[in-house]
Amino acid sequence: MKTESLRNELLFLLICLLFVSCTKEHKPEIGLFYDDNISLDYHQVIDAYKKLADFYDEAALFEKGMTDSGKPLHLFMISAGGDFDPGSVRNKGKGIVLINNGIHAGEPVGIDASLQYAVYLLEKRDDLHHLLDNTVIAIIPVYNIGGLLNRSPFHRMNQSGPELKGARRNARNLDLNRDFVKQDSKNSRSFAGIFHYLDPDVFVDTHTTNGMDHQSVMTLIPTMHQRLSGQMGDFFRHKMLPVLYERMNNETTWGMIPYLQLLNRQDVRDGILAFNDNPNYSSGYGSLFNTFSFMTETLAYKPFSERVRSTIDFLRILHEFSSGNNERIIELRQEAKSTTRELDYFVAGWETDTGLSEKVLFRGYETEEFSGEFTKRSIRRYDHNRPWSDSIPFYDKFIPVTEIKTPRAYIVPGAWNEITERMKLNGVEVEYLERDSVIESEITYINDYTISSASNQGRNHVVVLETKTRLGKRQFHRGDAVIWLNQNSNKYVVSMLEAESPVSFLSWGMFTSALESGEWFSLYAFEPEAMEILRNDRELRQEFERRISSDDEFAGDPLAQLQFVYDSLPHPETETGSNLYPVGRLL
Ligand SMILES: [Zn+2]
Questions:
Q1: pLDDT tens-digit map of 531-542
Q2: Domain ranges of the chain
Q3: Neighbouring-strand partners of residue 346
Q4: CA of 477 to the centre of ligand 1 (A)
Q5: pTM given for the model
Q6: How far is the centre of ligand 1, averaged over its atoms, from the C-alpha of 273 (Å)?
Q7: Domain spanning 40-341 has what CATH number?
Q8: Ligand 1 centroid to 326 CA: how many Å?
Q9: Is 461:452 a contact under the CB 8 Å cutoff?
Q10: Residue 331 CB partners (closer than 8 Å, separation 6+)
Q11: Residue 195 Cα, ligand 1 centroid: separation in angstroms?
Q12: pLDDT 10s digits, 307-341
């Protein structure tokens, strides 16, 4: 009995070994159905990447943190020699290209396109494999997992396929393409982990757009070139982008134009405005860290298969450019990082310069107006039988409107721990005060602001209308965070901590409690005290009398008069007119 069972076990082992070696010899079958208007679902995508990672030594699939869906965020990497350690890859002089997909899960082109491109690379098709000699490809298969688990034919209503589309928002109903800097979702916090682990040289986030109809399948949002530090912006605008547009237009049938944001909504011929991708968006986030960043936006009215194929071609052309210019890209980024570490001024707000334009070739369709059968309103129809093309103005230069002189450091009180935690997720080095200290710093008061009554991404926006600053001694405490501005992440730090930055934590409503008043006085009990104070303070009394004689409203408002005296008292910092912005600036 014993011998027989041993023999059976050996036989079984042998079969297993044979099976394993057989499977290792046969390339994994990866089913992709975009030509049939079908996009893979979440489980199919992850299974496909698992198969590739199991079979190819130069491929690996990692779990990198959690998402709001309760499922982990995956990162797939393709690297020659199976070296998946970013530090080691960098030491070999290789560049890293990161591709993010399905952030809006109803726009899944990149999910299928990236998988297809990974298969092409690994199967050594079309002479692509040599690109891995000096570059590593990193793919986030699905970013908005909750959205992809929620598929319906009715999401992205007027988009031409695929049959089932995921939802725009994630499991927590957040739009992840507004969450890159404030990081309320687990997705974005895990994404930050991946981004700073890889420190990609090139980053592309794949989307689909609707809006007006035209002939090109691909539209592109490159990050605003002026956001990139040092010489990067020039290289981006004058070397990289022209090659990408030229090759997409000349070597593929899809065509590529800038993403359409029109100067005049009635007529595209008046010109296209470059997209101001503030850092709430993926590409704006990437450029904070001096990464050449893009959002691809295929046109929703083109068949799904064409949109996937155009995205594959864009990824290939971008990868070829990155590999062909690898040394220059790495050099430019190093220089940009050192410029960023010495940041003196930071532009937080930009406006399009409508005085300066270039020409781009636009290929459109003539339109006609007709009366809608249902609403009887006038509706525009694009006539595909009447194509036209013309050179139209493209405005892609911006003027700084909010310029900030950077401090030496910021101090974030320990009470605002969630701010510091987000800083650390973004590669920011934080020191902590070892003892309670009175520190000479710039103190900011938010004198005037509005808070939106409607919520946006679960938060009520604060718009700062007026600030007042003064230099002075302020009490800080043991454990308060000190963030020196000598870091690669400087642009993130300034964007998030400056009161007047349009994407700051303050603007996202994360300091709103600091703007509320906590102390007051008792109306009847303060009355004799206020009288006594005025009696004893000549200067204050004179100021009060001036105010009474010059301001009728004040003269008729007893409450305002009591408040006037109350505000003159030496309150602790947090109550000096309240509205003290918690973040201190060291000059
Ligand atoms: Zn999108």
A1: 999 999 999 999
A2: 40-341, 400-518+577-586, 523-570
A3: 404
A4: 43
A5: 0.92
A6: 18
A7: 3.40.630.10
A8: 29
A9: yes
A10: none
A11: 19
A12: 999 999 999 999 999 999 999 999 999 999 999 99
